[in-house]
Fold:
Amino acid sequence: MITRQKLAEYLNTSIDDIRKIDFRRAYDWVHKKTGNLYTLDDLVIDTTNSTEGRIMVIYHLAGTRRDFDLYVRELKEFLEKFECPKERI
Structure:
């Protein structure tokens, strides 16, 4: 399980900042460049030898069946390229 503490350490930020980011699956994330909506499926830890320990995001295009096209992106890059509409309020 990826705790808030682990996320804070990985992103080099405070737990309070992590609490502001809602990683619950109930929210769709907007790709900043295209405006497309994506649904976050899960956060996982990369165990590949050369990149071990990176936190990865698994997500899919909102409104599609998630068993077809799943995408994986490193968490820091995901947060640079996507935003949660809830955060824009």
Remarks:
- Residues 4-11 form the longest helix (8 residues).
- The mean pLDDT is 85.
- The radius of gyration is 13 Å.
